[in-house]
Amino acid sequence: MREVVIVDGCRTAVGRRKGMFADYRSDELAAVVLDELVDRSKINKDVVEDVILGCVTQVNEQGGNIARTAALIAGFPSHVPGVTIDRQCGSSQQAVHFGAQAIAAGDMDIVVAGGVENMTRAPMFSNMQEVKPSDKLTSKYDIVNQGISAEKMAAKWGFTRKELDVFAYESHQKALAAIEKGHFKQEIVPAETWDENGHSQTAETDEGPRADTTMDALGGLKPVFQEDGNITAGNASQMSDGASAVLLMSREKAEALGLQPKARIVARSVVGSDPTLMLTGPIEATRKVLKKSGLTIDHIGRYEVNEAFAPVPLAWLNETNADAEKLNVNGGAIALGHPLGATGTKLLVSLVNELKRSENKYGLLAICEGMGMANATVIERL
């Protein structure tokens, strides 16, 4: 099997729902990232063999295979194909896995993998319309929304409302500090947007983190999914708009082109988990990917575990005995946002850059997914 490397990666800033990207077409937003990614790497677009994008709500401009339309908008020649996949919140992480598998197997040498989601323009579940789950499914499993799953997780692990809110508060503080230090500047592609008066402005800073967030403010929010519950808008991820992508190559091809890869993919995993308690998947996915890599959790210098809801990374910490000081060190989705299809490669890009900044060797990315699944990836800084 051939070694697969990450040559480069980039992302847009993440906009709040109904925020700076509210009037930006999803296919055009993805194209901004695709164009910049190839430009940064100084390769010709015609050598890319596939564009694989994750997108969860494939409706309207996000329908019709947005990977193909975005690639054409970005100026890729017509012979470069594109495919769009949906593994829920881990869609673009799965795009990386599919691209890496194609390269490792020798089918391809150069693949762009990424994702896009504009949750303002394609609201969550709008692709489902009024369709209800099949009776044949609900007869086998208790099908609930993710908020109820998060409540069930909080109850199972005994997390208090205060513990969840403290985690959320710290996510905002870490994100604000990272922005202040310029940690995301290199990875963010500035995008031209327009204000309500039609004036041009540049979107280059994540909109989600709130400088005015306090424990009192978080504590005053009402539960969203369960009257006596602990999950609020404050300790859950934000609905967001954004795009991201990475350039994958075989190690041999990168060397032949005179490129210096930033990281290599050490191991990949994907698992199914309980569809009712659907957010626990990252725990088993982590165990599986570590076993495949031959590493232990102590070898990993930085972890990115998506903050879909605060109980998810907290339970992951509890079950893996990981070091909380290495987790989501620049904040997570509670503060920075969660543009569903884009989140996987957004976090991967940030992880690659954080490994370089902190001079750590190994990083791990794990994301929980709707209906009970999860992906995990281990990378090594080069």
TrEMBL record:
Lineage: Bacteria, Bacillati, Bacillota, Bacilli, Bacillales
Classification via CDD domains: thiolase (cd00751)
Protein name as annotated: Thiolase family protein
Residue span, Thiolase N-terminal domain: 4-252
Residues covered by the Thiolase C-terminal domain: 260-381
Family classification: Belongs to the thiolase-like superfamily. Thiolase family.
Species for this entry: Lentibacillus salinarum
Keywords in alphabetical order: Acyltransferase, Transferase
Signal peptide (residue range): none
Record carries keyword Acyltransferase: yes
